[in-house]
Amino acid sequence: MKKALLLAAAAAALLSACAPTQTTFDPLVQPLATDLGPHNNLMEWWYVSGSLPEEGLAFHWAQFQVRPPGVPLPIMISHVAVTDLATGKVTFIEKNPAIGSGTASFPPLKLTNGDWTFQQEGGAFDLKAGPLNVRLTPQKGPVIHPPGYSGSPETGYLYYQGITRLALDGQINGRTVKGEAWLDHQWGNQIPGQAALWDWMAVQLAGGEDLMVYRVRTAAGKQTQLVGSIVDKAGVARAATNLTLEPGRTWTGSGGRVYTLSWRVKADEFDLNVDAVRDEQELLSRSTSIAYWEGPVRVSGTWRGQPETGKGMMEIVGGSLGGGR
């Protein structure tokens, strides 16, 4: 057990440390959109989030699979956060049990970490993790987000695949809920915390299209990549062209970390304002040694010249717990 705890601590340090970046990466080599299964990469994660304004809730679940050099088994780390928008209460739970108690297999996709499970059954997924007990049924097929990866030579790279709209039903915090969710899957050797920081938002528009915007930064704050992916009503992904991201209001969290909580997002097809529903969504993860802001956003503006609204989730990596920024 002591050795397992030391390895888990090493994984947390790896997540927040400057690791060697990937030196052989071919952007022309794309994974399949259906490639949901685990890989032999340094870093991999599966992620489900949902903004449920009609239910007064927002949530996210993530399972990390970390493969440090010299460790025979992958290390599984899981997060669940649930925000009750009526009371403002945020429940954040981390699971990092003994090495080897988590698994990842495909096909079909099945992830476990202790008694938490994410399992593909037929055309749907069942997620059971702490306060989450929900079924997720894809409303669109999986896509590779253009250009197929996040990152740069300075930060390392992650392939990027996802399902941008899933019908959700089940129980959260013990009560029956319905809504929509978003699934992401990334793998490679881009390590969050110091080597790579990012600003990410996933938006489900009322008109039926979905938008993902991802800005990757170095530890010093230099932007190395800005990408946007539009997934149309039929589930076809295309790049947002002439994309710009203008920061607005900020909020200061622990250690002086500054998070931008409102943005103007513009491209040829849209001009949108993305605003945090509430400010105090900073999560301090002991299992990964990373501080990040994660919470629901509301969206308004124009889409192809017509008024549009939407909902979504936003994630901003503030850095390692070892220092503010």
Attribute tags:
325 residues; mainly beta; AttH-like fold; twelve-stranded antiparallel β-sheet; ten-stranded antiparallel β-sheet; globular; disordered N terminus; AttH protein; AttH_dom; signal; AttH-like_dom_sf
Total count of helical runs of at least 4 residues: 1
CATH superfamily: AttH-like domain
Largest sheet: 12 strands, antiparallel
The count of domains is 1
Radius of gyration: 18 Å
Number of strands: 24
The CATH class: Mainly Beta
- The outline comes out as globular
- Terminal Cα separation, in Å? 35 Å
CATH architecture classification name: Beta Barrel
In N-to-C order, the SSE pattern is HEEEEEEEEEEEEEEEEEEEEEEEE
Instruction: State the helicity in percent bands.
Output: under 10%
Averaged pLDDT = 91
Q: Roughly what fraction of the amino acids lie in strands?
A: over 45%
Give the structural class.
Answer: mainly beta
Describe the overall structure.
This protein has one domain (2-20, 36-320): Beta Barrel (AttH-like fold), CATH 2.40.370.10. Helices cover 5% and strands 58% of the residues. It has one helix at 2-16, and strands spanning 43-52, 57-66, 75-84, 90-95, 102-105, 110-113, 116-121, 124-129, 132-138, 143-152, 156-172, 175-188, 197-205, 210-217, 223-231, 237-239, 244-247, 250-252, 258-260, 262-267, 270-276, 282-285, 290-303, 306-320. Strands 1, 2, 3, 4, 5, 6, 7, 8, 9, 10, 11 and 12 form a twelve-stranded antiparallel beta sheet that branches.
